[in-house]
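Quick one, probably user error.
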């Protein structure tokens, strides 16, 4: 079985409301896809995604693994856009190492 990755552009994300974006991501992950978001999620959106995921966990859907680069701070320490975020099924993806510039991930095509 192959692993499908959905690479979502910043333009596509910006065209959606916050809940629409989270539902889009969660539906993709529940289908077994790894979803890569070009512009990432805000910390509030990440919290909401985790909350939404917890309401849908069952025997067929064990949850998500989420990893992303930390947001950068701009002029006068003002928050800039968040950076790339990767979300995938917890049974398929494991983050091995993460720092400010590198995310190493193990992806398995076999569900545990």
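Nope, works fine. Designed sequence:
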């Amino acid at each position: 079985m192959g692993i499908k990755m959905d690479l979502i552009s910043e333009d596509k994300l910006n065209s959606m409301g916050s809940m629409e974006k989270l539902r889009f991501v969660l539906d993709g992950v529940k289908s077994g896809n790894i979803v890569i978001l070009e512009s990432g999620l805000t910390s509030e959106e990440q919290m909401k995604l985790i909350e939404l995921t917890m309401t849908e966990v069952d025997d067929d859907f064990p949850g998500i693994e989420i990893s992303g680069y930390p947001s950068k701070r701009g002029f006068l320490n003002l928050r800039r856009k968040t950076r790339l975020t990767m979300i995938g099924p917890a049974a398929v993806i494991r983050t091995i190492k993460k720092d400010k510039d590198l995310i190493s991930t193990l992806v398995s095509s076999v569900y545990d």
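The mean pLDDT is 84.
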